[in-house]
Structures are given as structure tokens and as C-alpha cells.
Design goal:
133 residues; 2 helices; single chain; alpha+beta; three-stranded antiparallel sheet; 26% helix
């Protein structure tokens, strides 16, 4: 399938409406208080470098302790960012140590297994992506 660049240098399908965007999805277990909830974090455009750094950090930690990547916690916050195209909020990812609560471990394992088995499908929704993108 061929694409063309639009006036904003985005890859567009021949219909001129559908945009193809490089999107990195991270399946996570979000802790709301102490309650674990499966979630997806969608990183595109200016956030792709952060996704790559996060993946490298996860791999480094995993190789150091031989635990799967989902056995670790990370603190994600948003930070203001800008470039010549505008201002937006971007991700900041910091290691927060291994999972300690069995309920959190169980939720992470269940989510991982459901994704691996194909019982859940990950899909990026980029309809509300803003700024610098």
C-alpha cells in the first residue's frame, strides 16, 4: 500500500483522510490507589524516543534480575514540552522498583497471559493526540 505526505509531512493513505502513524503501545497495570487495573499507554510522535528509552530501561532491569518486565513498577507522570509547532504534555517514566503486592503481581500476570493468548487485543486510538505531533 502506498502513502503520500500531506502538508504537515504526515503519511496519508490514498483516500487523503486516513493517516498512518508510528505508535508504540505499552500494556500496563495501572495502580489506582491500591487497586490494579489493566490499561494501555499510547506513545506517538515526540513520545517515541521516550518509549524506546523505557523499553531499554526495562530490558536492562530484566537482565539484571531475571524477572519479566511486567514484574517491575514505573512511575509515569506528565511534563510540559514544546517545540516550534506548539506546546503539549509529554511522558516522564521513572523506575519505581519491583512489584511487592501479590494482588499486583497476579493482575500483571493475568493481563500478560490474556494478551499472549489473544484473549485481549491492543488497539491504538490516536483520535485525540495533540501538540508536537
Amino acid at each position: 500500500m502506498s502513502t503520500t505526505k500531506d502538508t504537515k509531512n504526515r503519511d496519508m493513505l490514498p483516500d487523503g483522510v486516513t493517516q498512518l502513524a508510528d505508535t508504540r503501545l505499552h500494556a500496563v497495570v495501572l495502580l489506582v490507589g491500591d487497586r490494579p487495573m489493566p490499561a494501555l499507554i499510547n506513545m506517538t510522535s515526540t513520545q517515541i524516543k521516550k518509549s524506546k528509552r523505557w523499553m531499554s530501561a526495562m530490558q536492562e532491569i530484566q537482565n539484571g534480575d531475571n524477572l519479566p518486565t511486567f514484574a517491575h513498577c514505573y512511575t509515569l507522570t506528565t511534563v510540559p514540552e514544546s517545540n516550534d509547532k506548539g506546546n503539549w504534555m509529554g511522558w516522564s517514566v521513572q523506575p519505581a522498583g519491583p512489584l511487592n503486592e501479590q494482588e499486583h503481581v497476579d493482575a500483571a500476570v493475568a493481563f500478560y497471559k490474556a494478551l499472549r493468548a489473544g484473549d485481549l487485543k491492543m488497539r491504538a486510538d490516536t483520535s485525540d493526540q495533540h501538540g508536537g505531533e
